[in-house]
Amino acid sequence: MDAGTDRGSRAGRLLRQYPLVALTSLMILATVLLPQFGLEEPVRLLASVYAAAVVLVRSVSMIRTLRKGRWGIDLLALMAVASTVAVGEYLAALVVILMLASGEGLEDFAHGRAVRELRSLLDRAPRFAHREMAGPVLDDVPVDAVVPGDVLVVRPSELVPVDGELLSDSASMDESSLTGESLPVERHRGELLLSGSVNGEAAIRMRATATAADSQYSRIIALVEEASASRAPVVRLADRYAVPFTVLALAMAGTAWLLSGDPVRFAQVLVVATPCPLLIAAPVAFLAGTSQAARKGIIIKNTSTLEQLARARTAVFDKTGTLTSGRPVLDRVELASGPGQDNGEGSDAGRLLQLAASAEQFSSHVLASSVIEAAAARNLRLLPVTQATEHATQGVEAVCGGERVVVGKAGLVGATASGFRAAALQSGQLAVYVAVNGTYAGALIMKDPLRADAMDTLATLHRLGIRHTMLLTGDAHATAAHIAREAGIRHVKAECLPADKVSEVAAIAERPVLMVGDGVNDAPVLAAADVGIAMGAKGATAASESADVVVMLDDLSKVALAVAIGKRTLAVALTSIWTGIGASIALMAVAMTGYIPAVTGALLQELVDLATIVNGLRALHGADRLPGMTSSPAGATSREVEYM
């Protein structure tokens, strides 16, 4: 495509997307150039009719808005256009219309910025996968044909086609397009690979654990589509200053007309009072804020959420998968004969873990994979298994290496083994009991540990202005209190059903309220909170769809970063707004004396516009350098837990 065709294409796209901006720009160009050819009167008539038509059309929607009780800053802009047309200052009227239309265009652009940041992912979506067949043969199949259990090969620099388990010893993955993490991530055998991540320099083997539709890449695409369709009703930040600023501007313009007796003075004051900085300042800042968030792996679905994040006073957390890792790990092995200190192969504790993990291969219980992973971490070889029988929700029986093993809950193991005794558990622990050949052998003590970044995240949120924190969970009181105390959360509500969580959030007085969760049962409360934040990297799709913010990296500290981005964005937007108000008042004061012609006043407003745009772009960066984002001494968040 040549340069001329490309310019024509861009012009056509501008005309389609922002027709008022394009047409007004053409009118201004004609108004400046055509009088040189003796066409001043036709141009004056055309420009005046055009400006009057814009005022009439926009007045219809403005009247509807006023009838609904909403007073927008656009009223003052339309009055400025009408007054300049009335006194013959048609060029000034066109400049004001251009600024009004540009501000609205920037708002639309700001709303869709998060979508555009992620749209490029669609062009890179995996379309084919290399599936292993018999022997060394690879079959290239459409990614939609891959099913869980298929063994795939991913060549160097290729995209991982679906979510799956790494079968090779290790892999270096570029996950930046998914999570915002710029450095390569080392993955090891058995770890999850996310679809859409880029393989490093060596071919790897993996086993698919999800279809393409259920994989991470498709979930991101679904979020992009939702963000594109999401248009929450938002009162523009600048509109909150509409009434006092409009009253002040009209008072100053009326006074100037009254004292001078010249209606042109009224138009001159209103032109410099036209709140173009107010119309443009907030959209530019919010555009920059959503862009910064997207680069950090945080999807913000609409720009109004940034202000809610900035003003948040209460943060509520789910426990499992949010404050904790969501995957129980082995804390210790407790032998029936006494404490087991060595879990390695050859020790009694190691043998017990080896037998339990071998039997758990045939269990679908959520703890089974944790037991198997604990054995693998200790290099314990799984034994051949025969005659395996699973007891739903209770445990599994199997013959492992010639020994009959029963693994599961106390009820199952206690009923089949002699010498059974319940393990002494602390808060936050649970036991997987093991019997061997009809005799109680011991217990595997498991715990769901607090995330490594949970304490720092809570401390950072407090420094950023979050006054109250709460834990809402369906777990027992003892477990919830243990996690809350460890994380530094004071208020706890345990044993909650999803409906209970919604009621608790609705009853919170200190608002706005953030709710952070990741599971399907968190979806209702995420939707009910002022700002729902979903841990979307490993969380449930329903949670991500209900949330206002989705953290694509499995990193709780991103919650604090989202709040910091909101604060940075709001501070920049307010600075621009107050700068615009101050500049407009100063220009109005001068215009009252008659020293600023209408066209000159409109051009001066252009300079103020540029200043607000440049200032608004500061929200593109700097959130991670806010004072509250600095670290605090360990343990600073420790406090007494209070039940609610």
From TrEMBL:
Keywords assigned: ATP-binding, Cell membrane, Hydrolase, Membrane, Metal-binding, Nucleotide-binding, Translocase, Transmembrane, Transmembrane helix
Keyword Transcription attributed: no
Main location: membrane
GO CC term (a single one): plasma membrane
Gene3D superfamilies: Calcium-transporting ATPase, cytoplasmic domain N (3.40.1110.10), Calcium-transporting ATPase, cytoplasmic transduction domain A (2.70.150.10), HAD superfamily/HAD-like (3.40.50.1000)
Principal EC category: hydrolase
Tagged with keyword Transmembrane helix: yes
Entry's Gene Ontology molecular function annotations: ATP binding; ATP hydrolysis activity; ATPase-coupled monoatomic cation transmembrane transporter activity; cadmium ion transmembrane transporter activity; metal ion binding
Protein name: Cadmium-translocating P-type ATPase
Source organism (scientific name): Arthrobacter nitrophenolicus
